[in-house]
Structure formats: structure tokens, C-alpha cells
Amino acid sequence: MKQKDLNEAVECINNKINILLEQFDIKLVYIFGSYAKGTNTKNSDLDIAILLGEYTPYDKINLISELAGILNRDDIDVVILNDANSILKFQVIKYGKIVYKVSEYEKVIFESKTMDEYMDMEYYRNRQKQVMDITFKEKWGMLNDKRHS
């Protein structure tokens, strides 16, 4: 049965987290996306972000499979935060809801590093946007000129 809201999803994960902790080195679990925002519908997938300690690619596959079984749904989107880019990690900590943390220390360290990475790259993201805007305006201007000639 699909969880109808954030509280049901959190409760379901918390009730079964020990099964996952026996098999995987889980440090943090967040729910993000439409469930975290409260805008989910019956067709929404469930977005889950997980920070792992030691893991292998095989562990990631097994973790996703175990989560699908625990939540009794196949429409989950799992992000392994260890492999995510700084923008996605920042979005998860800014808008997501923490479901599990091995310790407050682990949460603070992860979120601090994520914010540092995100802020370090802000100049480059802004510069890239400026270049894209200029390029788009130049090309769009040329297209408009051709249409009106």
C-alpha cells in the first residue's frame, strides 16, 4: 500500500529501519521531493536520499531493492548522497525531511560539508548561467532577425 503522505512514509521507514541497519552502513535518510513538500498525489513517486558509510555498488542495488520491499512499492527514487552532486545534496538538505540519523554529529558534518561545496561552486554556476544567457540572446536575436527579414 502506498503511503499517502510524508508522515506515513516516515513512520513506515522508521518501523523498518532496523532491518536496513543490519545490512547496510546507513548514516542518514531523507525524504525529499513532493512528499517532503506536501504536494504529492496518488501518482507521485517517493524520493529518498541516503548517506552511506562503507558500501559497494552491490550494496546500492540491494538497498534499493530492500527499500522497495519494506515500503511495498516500486515507485521509489533512491539517491545515494555519497555519489550526488552538490546541487542535489543542497536541495535535499534544504527541502527534504530527515527520517533517520545515526547521530546529530554525522548530520551536522554532512550538512556543513554540503553547504560548503554548494557555496564554493556558486560563482561558477552564476558564471555559467551568464554565458548561457548571452549565448541564448545572441542566437535568439539571430533567429528573430531571420524571421522578420
UniProtKB/TrEMBL annotation:
Annotated Polymerase beta nucleotidyltransferase domain residues: 17-104
SUPFAM superfamilies: Nucleotidyltransferase (SSF81301)
Highest rank taxon of the organism: Bacteria
InterPro entries xrefs: NT_sf, Polbeta, TA_antitoxin_MntA
Any Pfam family hit: Polbeta
UniProt name for this protein: Polymerase beta nucleotidyltransferase domain-containing protein
Upper taxonomic lineage: Bacteria, Bacillati, Bacillota, Clostridia, Eubacteriales
